[in-house]
Amino acid sequence: MKRGLFLTAVPLFAATLAGAQEIVTIATRPGVTQSFFIEGMHGRKPEALALLYVGGGGNIRLRMEDGRVKFGERNFLPRSRGEFIRNGILPVVMDAPSDQGQLTDGYRMGEAQSADARAVIAELKRRFPGLPVYLVGTSRGTISAAYLGGALGGEAAGVVLTSSLFGSANLRRQSVSLRGFDFAAIKTRLLFVHHREDGCESTPYSSAASLGGRYTLVSVVGGKPPESGPCEPLAAHGYFGKEAETVDAIAGWMLEKPFAKEIE
Description:
By secondary structure, the protein is of the alpha/beta class. The protein has one domain (43-263): Alpha/Beta hydrolase fold, catalytic domain (Rossmann fold, 3-Layer(aba) Sandwich). It has seven helices and twelve strands. It has helices spanning 76-79, 81-86, 105-108, 111-127, 141-152, 205-211, 243-254; strands spanning 7-11, 22-29, 32-38, 48-53, 63-65, 68-70, 89-94, 133-138, 158-162, 189-195, 216-220, 262-263. The strands form two sheets. Strands 1-2-3-7-4-8-9-10-11-12 form a ten-stranded mixed sheet, sandwiched between helices. α4 packs across α5 (141-152). It is globular and about 40 Å long. The chain starts with 6 loop residues before the first strand and ends with a strand. 43% of the residues are buried.
């Protein structure tokens, strides 16, 4: 017997148009729910949707507090929601599913994540018929986006990998990464975005540059002085001070409009 999905929506506003914000929770697997945040478009009509996968443990602690949405917003992708909206892209921020306190690497690479993403994408397409849905990951979130890009095929319109976790060159510090990943397994459009000055050991720009001949690469230079460690969001790793220009390029690529491949 096929298990049905249930939907629980917590709207911040009574409106149900694209201007409304919502926390949405759906059942994705037996006994498991997946929550995500749909940002409001502030009166703009979206042209595409971006399903955002953050780095680190992937748990943004999406919740309602005192009638307001609360979640971790320091990561580059949720921090840049306004830039996506300005470009006509509706940002959707993924939280960890109910059976994952922090996303394990096995989850990010496995079928459970694919099942969760399929259910979320189906719900988004029900709400926003005809709009393409792109998978966007940053740092450790690129493992999620890349593996989903290979698993979901045409269910997603394309994949954007920012500050990709290629792994450390230090063999003593090896962990799960995209080193050796077969990017040809992603049959949809694929974009790499990377800061030339990314100082995080596990996300070297040189690895992104080596793929630039086969795939579209946006390279970023400059920004604000860092206010966090090199592998954290308020540094070149998180496009700190270059959020607007970086998202402009991502959105241009998504909408097949002209965009800068070199951002200075």
